[in-house]
Amino acid sequence: MKANKVTIHDIAKALDINSSTVSRALNDSPRVTKKTKEKILNKAKEMGYKRNLLASNLRKNVTNTIGVVVPRISRHFFSSVIQGIEETAYLEGYSVIICQSLEQLKREKNILETLAANRVDGVLMSISMETTNYNHIQELKQRGIPLVFFDRHPNISKTNNVLINDFKGGFDATHHLISKGCKNIVHFSGPQELAIYKNRLQGYKQALKESNIPFRNEYIISSRLMEHDGVNNIKELIAKNLIFDGIFSANDLAAIGAIKYLNEIKVNIPKDVAIVGFSNEPISTVINPSLTTINQPGFEIGKTATDLLLQHIKNQHTSLTTETIILESNLIERQSSNR
Amino acid sequence: MKANKVTIHDIAKALDINSSTVSRALNDSPRVTKKTKEKILNKAKEMGYKRNLLASNLRKNVTNTIGVVVPRISRHFFSSVIQGIEETAYLEGYSVIICQSLEQLKREKNILETLAANRVDGVLMSISMETTNYNHIQELKQRGIPLVFFDRHPNISKTNNVLINDFKGGFDATHHLISKGCKNIVHFSGPQELAIYKNRLQGYKQALKESNIPFRNEYIISSRLMEHDGVNNIKELIAKNLIFDGIFSANDLAAIGAIKYLNEIKVNIPKDVAIVGFSNEPISTVINPSLTTINQPGFEIGKTATDLLLQHIKNQHTSLTTETIILESNLIERQSSNR
C-alpha cells in the first residue's frame, strides 16, 4: 500500500518544518501549539500518512484500549453498563474491547491473559458466578494494569469498585411486598460467594425484621437465577407444601420464569402471589403481568466506572488510593405487585 | 512475582533435557512427541512457569485471538451469533474479543484499527448501517488479516460471507401474510445500502408478484428499524390515509413498536392488521399478541463463520478461495398473524 510509505519525514519536508515537531504533533504533545498540530494533521491526512499504531503504542506502552469483562453481554443490565463505558471511553479517545466469561472461571482467566497480552491500558470487570478464587485478578493487579470492578466484585482488599446499594435494593423490594400485605415472602437468591446476592439477602432480612416478620431459612432458594431456575423454584416450593404470597427474586430472569409458570398453573399474580424482580430488564415491561423491579442505573454505573478507571490510567505513577463508589437504585412498581 | 521468574532453562534443567525441546513443546511444535510435551507441560505447571505471552506471540506473529465486530451486542440476533463464535473459537483455543460499532462508520473504522494494532489473528464482522464506504475494510484485507462477514456484508468482491437467505425470508414472511388474506401489505425496510434489507424487499416483491398483487411504492417505509421507527411508520401511514391490513417488518424491533402503538389506538392484531417480524428476538414471544417472525439461526451462523475464519487463519500461506455460505431461515407462526 502506497499510503503506508509516507513517513513523518515526508510530512516535515512538505511543510518545511522539523520531523520531531511532526512526531510530537502526531503524539498530541502539549509542546506543539494547537494551530501547528492542525496544520500537521491536515497535511498528514492529505498525504495519506498512516501511523504504525502498534510500533507507536509499544514505544509509548499504551494502546488506548480498555478491556471490559462481563459474565454475559446478552443481559440488558450489562449491555447498558457497556453503553455507559463506550460513551465515556470514546469521548476520551479510548477504544473498548469486550469479553464475556459466560459465568466460567476458566474463561475469565483466559480473558485476563488475553487482555494483558493485548496490553490494554485498563480493565473494567464484573466477575463470574464461579469466581471464588482470585489469583488471576491478583496477577493482573501485580502486573500494574489499572482495574475497576462494577456490580459483581471480588472480596479482596484495595480494589476500585462501582456498585449499587444492593442492601437497600433488597430492603426496598421486600419492604414493598410487605406494604402490599405479603406475609410469607420467598427470596430467590444467587450464589452467596457474590457479595451482591449476599447484600440483597441482607436487605431482605432487615426488611422482615423491621416489620417483625420472622425469617425462615426454607424461604431462601439459591440458584444461578436463570429463567428455568425460577420455574424450578416454584415447583420446589409447591412440592414442599410451603405457603407463600410474595416473591423477591434477586434478578428479573428468575422472576420471569416464576411468572410464566404461575400463569400456567393458574395462580393469580399479584392477588395470590406478588412478585418483585431486580435489574429492570426490558422484558419486565412486556411480560404479563408486567414485573415490579429494582432499577439499576446501568449507564451511570458504566460511566462512573470508566471515569474512575481513566483517572487511574492517567495517574499511574502517582499512586491513587482505591475507592468504592455506591450508586442508588430505585423501585419501579408495575402490575406484578399492584394489589 | 516469583512465578514469573521461572524460565524454559529452569524447566530444561529440572528435566535434564534441551531448552529448545522445552521451547518447542511449549509452542506445541509437531517436532516434539505427545509424551514429551505432556511431561514438559506438567513440569512447567508444577514449577509455576508463566510464558511471556506477548513476547511469544510477537515472535510467532499470532495472538490466538479473534476479533468480532457487530453493530450492537444488545440485539439478541448478534448475541446468539456471538455465542456460536465463542463456543467454536474456545474449542480451538482462541479467545474472542468483541467490539460494537453502534451503527457508526467512524467507530467501525476505529475498531478495525484497534483490532489490527492488537494483532488479532482474524476478524468476524457484520457492518454498520452507515457503512457505505469500504476503505477501512479493504485496508484490513490488504494487511493480510483473514476476514469473514456474517449477516450484514459489504458489496465488495472476494470476501468470505456467511449469510442467511434473506430473499427467501422476505418471500416467506410476505407469502404468509397473503395466505392469511392480507391484500394491502406494508413493508418496513432498513437502509438500502445493506444487501440484507434489499434482499428482504426483493423477497417481498416476488411474493406479491406471484400472487398478482400490485407493488405499491408508498407501502415501503425505510428507517433504521428502531422501536420508535415502528411507531412513527404507523403514524405516517395513518397520516397519509393509506389503508393496510398486513405489515412485514424487516426486523422485530420495529414490529414491536408497531404492535405497541396499534394496541394503544385499539387496532386489533391480527384481525385488522396481521404482522410478521424478522429475527425472532426473545421479546417476540412475550409481547401481546406474540409476534410471528422469521427465525435466523444465529448460533449456527456464528459457528459456520468461525469455522470458515479458522480455515483461513490456518492456511494463510496457501491462498484459499473466498466463499459465501447461505443458511436457511424459517417462519415461526405466533398470534400476530394467526387469523
Automatic annotation (TrEMBL), chains A, B:
<dbReference type="InterPro" id="IPR028082">
    <property type="entry name" value="Peripla_BP_I"/>
</dbReference>
<dbReference type="InterPro" id="IPR000843">
    <property type="entry name" value="HTH_LacI"/>
</dbReference>
<dbReference type="Pfam" id="PF00356">
    <property type="entry name" value="LacI"/>
</dbReference>
<dbReference type="InterPro" id="IPR010982">
    <property type="entry name" value="Lambda_DNA-bd_dom_sf"/>
</dbReference>
<dbReference type="GO" id="GO:0000976">
    <property type="term" value="F:transcription cis-regulatory region binding"/>
</dbReference>
<feature type="domain" description="HTH lacI-type">
    <location>
        <begin position="6"/>
        <end position="60"/>
    </location>
</feature>
<protein>
    <submittedName>
        <fullName>LacI family transcriptional regulator</fullName>
    </submittedName>
</protein>
<keyword id="KW-0238">DNA-binding</keyword>
<keyword id="KW-0805">Transcription regulation</keyword>
<dbReference type="GO" id="GO:0003700">
    <property type="term" value="F:DNA-binding transcription factor activity"/>
</dbReference>
<keyword id="KW-0804">Transcription</keyword>
<dbReference type="InterPro" id="IPR046335">
    <property type="entry name" value="LacI/GalR-like_sensor"/>
</dbReference>
<dbReference type="Pfam" id="PF13377">
    <property type="entry name" value="Peripla_BP_3"/>
</dbReference>
